Amino acid sequence: MANEGVDRRRRRFLVAATTVVGGAGVAALATPFVASLQPSARAQAAGAPVEVNVSQIEPGQRISVGWRGRPIWVVRRTPEMLDLLPGIRERLRDPDSEVITQQPEYARNQYRSINPEILVLIGLCTHLGCSPAFRPEVGAGELGADWPGGWLCGCHGSRFDMAGRTYRNQPAALNLEVPPHHYLSDNVILVGEHAEGGTA
Known about the structure:
Layout: H1 2-37, H2 41-47, E1 50-53, E2 62-67, E3 70-76, H3 79-84, E4 118-122, E5 133-135, E6 150-152, E7 159-161, E8 181-183, E9 188-191
Antiparallel strand pairs: 1-9, 2-3, 3-4, 5-6, 6-7, 8-9
Protein backbone atom coordinates (compact mmCIF):
# COMPACT_ATOMS: atom_id res chain seq x y z
CA MET A 1 0.00 0.00 0.00
CA ALA A 2 2.82 2.41 0.87
CA ASN A 3 4.41 1.72 -2.50
CA GLU A 4 1.17 2.63 -4.31
CA GLY A 5 1.18 6.11 -2.70
CA VAL A 6 4.77 6.66 -3.77
CA ASP A 7 4.03 5.44 -7.30
CA ARG A 8 1.01 7.76 -7.65
CA ARG A 9 3.01 10.77 -6.54
CA ARG A 10 5.81 9.82 -8.88
CA ARG A 11 3.31 9.26 -11.69
CA ARG A 12 1.71 12.70 -11.14
CA PHE A 13 5.15 14.30 -11.09
CA LEU A 14 6.19 12.52 -14.29
CA VAL A 15 2.92 13.44 -16.04
CA ALA A 16 3.27 17.11 -15.00
CA ALA A 17 6.94 17.23 -15.99
CA THR A 18 6.20 15.60 -19.35
CA THR A 19 3.35 18.07 -19.96
CA VAL A 20 5.57 21.05 -19.20
CA VAL A 21 8.44 19.78 -21.36
CA GLY A 22 6.02 18.86 -24.16
CA GLY A 23 4.35 22.29 -24.00
CA ALA A 24 7.74 24.00 -24.14
CA GLY A 25 8.70 21.86 -27.13
CA VAL A 26 5.47 22.74 -28.98
CA ALA A 27 6.05 26.44 -28.26
CA ALA A 28 9.65 26.18 -29.45
CA LEU A 29 8.51 24.55 -32.69
CA ALA A 30 5.59 26.92 -33.21
CA THR A 31 7.55 30.15 -32.69
CA PRO A 32 9.60 29.97 -35.92
CA PHE A 33 6.50 28.89 -37.85
CA VAL A 34 4.42 31.81 -36.58
CA ALA A 35 7.35 34.19 -37.14
CA SER A 36 7.67 32.97 -40.72
CA LEU A 37 4.13 34.20 -41.40
CA GLN A 38 5.15 37.78 -40.53
CA PRO A 39 6.87 39.92 -43.18
CA SER A 40 10.63 40.04 -42.75
CA ALA A 41 12.37 43.16 -41.50
CA ARG A 42 13.71 43.62 -45.02
CA ALA A 43 10.22 43.38 -46.50
CA GLN A 44 8.83 45.80 -43.93
CA ALA A 45 11.66 48.24 -44.58
CA ALA A 46 11.20 47.93 -48.33
CA GLY A 47 7.63 49.15 -48.39
CA ALA A 48 6.70 50.36 -44.95
CA PRO A 49 5.96 54.06 -44.52
CA VAL A 50 8.71 56.12 -42.87
CA GLU A 51 8.22 58.76 -40.18
CA VAL A 52 10.28 61.94 -40.47
CA ASN A 53 10.55 64.51 -37.68
CA VAL A 54 10.86 67.83 -39.52
CA SER A 55 11.49 69.84 -36.34
CA GLN A 56 15.13 68.67 -36.52
CA ILE A 57 15.68 70.23 -39.97
CA GLU A 58 17.30 73.66 -40.03
CA PRO A 59 16.04 76.34 -42.47
CA GLY A 60 17.67 75.74 -45.86
CA GLN A 61 18.72 72.19 -44.91
CA ARG A 62 17.91 68.95 -46.71
CA ILE A 63 17.87 65.55 -45.05
CA SER A 64 17.60 62.17 -46.74
CA VAL A 65 15.77 59.04 -45.58
CA GLY A 66 15.14 55.74 -47.35
CA TRP A 67 11.78 54.43 -48.54
CA ARG A 68 11.31 51.45 -50.88
CA GLY A 69 15.01 51.51 -51.69
CA ARG A 70 14.87 55.12 -52.89
CA PRO A 71 16.24 58.28 -51.30
CA ILE A 72 13.56 60.62 -49.96
CA TRP A 73 14.59 64.24 -49.55
CA VAL A 74 12.92 66.48 -47.01
CA VAL A 75 13.85 70.16 -47.28
CA ARG A 76 12.95 73.03 -44.97
CA ARG A 77 12.79 75.93 -47.40
CA THR A 78 13.52 79.45 -46.24
CA PRO A 79 11.20 82.37 -47.06
CA GLU A 80 13.85 83.55 -49.54
CA MET A 81 13.79 80.20 -51.35
CA LEU A 82 10.00 80.35 -51.59
CA ASP A 83 10.06 83.95 -52.83
CA LEU A 84 12.23 82.98 -55.81
CA LEU A 85 9.88 80.26 -57.11
CA PRO A 86 7.32 82.43 -58.98
CA GLY A 87 10.04 84.40 -60.81
CA ILE A 88 11.38 81.42 -62.78
CA ARG A 89 8.10 80.04 -64.18
CA GLU A 90 9.03 80.85 -67.79
CA ARG A 91 12.27 78.86 -67.49
CA LEU A 92 10.50 75.65 -66.39
CA ARG A 93 9.11 72.83 -68.50
CA ASP A 94 6.12 72.03 -66.25
CA PRO A 95 5.72 74.93 -63.79
CA ASP A 96 2.12 74.02 -62.88
CA SER A 97 2.80 70.30 -62.30
CA GLU A 98 0.45 69.24 -65.08
CA VAL A 99 2.01 65.76 -65.35
CA ILE A 100 -0.19 64.30 -62.65
CA THR A 101 1.91 61.16 -62.16
CA GLN A 102 4.73 63.25 -60.64
CA GLN A 103 2.89 64.32 -57.49
CA PRO A 104 -0.28 63.64 -55.51
CA GLU A 105 -3.13 66.09 -56.03
CA TYR A 106 -2.44 67.72 -52.65
CA ALA A 107 1.06 68.69 -53.86
CA ARG A 108 -0.06 70.08 -57.21
CA ASN A 109 0.67 73.73 -56.48
CA GLN A 110 3.56 76.15 -57.04
CA TYR A 111 5.33 74.80 -53.94
CA ARG A 112 4.61 71.12 -54.75
CA SER A 113 3.98 70.51 -51.07
CA ILE A 114 1.33 70.39 -48.37
CA ASN A 115 3.12 73.00 -46.27
CA PRO A 116 5.06 75.50 -48.42
CA GLU A 117 8.01 75.44 -46.04
CA ILE A 118 8.50 71.64 -46.17
CA LEU A 119 9.26 69.91 -49.48
CA VAL A 120 9.27 66.11 -49.84
CA LEU A 121 10.77 64.58 -53.00
CA ILE A 122 12.07 61.27 -54.32
CA GLY A 123 15.75 62.04 -54.84
CA LEU A 124 16.17 60.46 -58.28
CA CYS A 125 16.56 62.32 -61.55
CA THR A 126 13.67 61.62 -63.89
CA HIS A 127 16.06 61.24 -66.83
CA LEU A 128 18.04 58.11 -65.97
CA GLY A 129 17.69 57.78 -62.19
CA CYS A 130 20.89 59.43 -60.93
CA SER A 131 20.74 61.29 -57.64
CA PRO A 132 21.08 65.05 -58.24
CA ALA A 133 23.25 67.21 -55.99
CA PHE A 134 21.57 69.72 -53.69
CA ARG A 135 22.72 73.18 -54.75
CA PRO A 136 20.69 75.66 -52.66
CA GLU A 137 23.11 78.57 -52.98
CA VAL A 138 21.78 81.41 -55.14
CA GLY A 139 24.06 82.46 -58.02
CA ALA A 140 26.42 79.50 -57.62
CA GLY A 141 29.49 80.22 -59.81
CA GLU A 142 29.35 77.49 -62.45
CA LEU A 143 25.53 77.50 -62.49
CA GLY A 144 25.29 81.17 -63.36
CA ALA A 145 24.32 84.37 -61.59
CA ASP A 146 20.64 83.68 -62.30
CA TRP A 147 20.69 80.30 -60.52
CA PRO A 148 17.97 80.50 -57.81
CA GLY A 149 18.99 77.33 -55.99
CA GLY A 150 17.81 73.77 -56.50
CA TRP A 151 19.37 70.53 -57.76
CA LEU A 152 21.90 69.70 -60.45
CA CYS A 153 22.19 66.17 -61.79
CA GLY A 154 25.86 65.32 -62.25
CA CYS A 155 25.13 62.57 -64.79
CA HIS A 156 23.71 64.61 -67.66
CA GLY A 157 23.28 68.15 -66.34
CA SER A 158 19.54 68.29 -65.66
CA ARG A 159 18.53 71.13 -63.35
CA PHE A 160 15.60 71.34 -60.95
CA ASP A 161 14.34 74.30 -58.94
CA MET A 162 13.60 74.39 -55.21
CA ALA A 163 10.21 72.80 -55.88
CA GLY A 164 11.77 69.94 -57.85
CA ARG A 165 10.52 71.31 -61.19
CA THR A 166 12.70 70.67 -64.24
CA TYR A 167 13.99 73.43 -66.47
CA ARG A 168 13.27 73.65 -70.19
CA ASN A 169 15.71 72.06 -72.65
CA GLN A 170 17.14 69.64 -70.09
CA PRO A 171 17.59 65.86 -70.46
CA ALA A 172 15.02 65.32 -67.67
CA ALA A 173 11.57 65.79 -69.16
CA LEU A 174 9.66 65.41 -65.88
CA ASN A 175 9.68 67.14 -62.53
CA LEU A 176 11.15 65.25 -59.57
CA GLU A 177 8.50 62.98 -58.08
CA VAL A 178 6.68 63.86 -54.86
CA PRO A 179 5.94 60.65 -52.91
CA PRO A 180 2.68 60.06 -51.05
CA HIS A 181 2.92 61.57 -47.59
CA HIS A 182 0.91 63.31 -44.90
CA TYR A 183 1.38 64.97 -41.54
CA LEU A 184 0.83 62.93 -38.39
CA SER A 185 1.39 66.09 -36.33
CA ASP A 186 2.83 69.56 -36.87
CA ASN A 187 6.36 68.15 -36.86
CA VAL A 188 6.05 64.55 -38.05
CA ILE A 189 5.49 63.46 -41.66
CA LEU A 190 4.64 59.91 -42.68
CA VAL A 191 6.21 59.22 -46.08
CA GLY A 192 4.74 56.34 -48.05
CA GLU A 193 0.98 56.73 -47.72
CA HIS A 194 -1.72 59.31 -48.25
CA ALA A 195 -3.81 60.68 -45.42
CA GLU A 196 -7.00 58.74 -44.77
CA GLY A 197 -9.27 59.49 -47.68
CA GLY A 198 -6.42 61.14 -49.60
CA THR A 199 -5.66 60.14 -53.15
CA ALA A 200 -2.81 60.33 -55.58
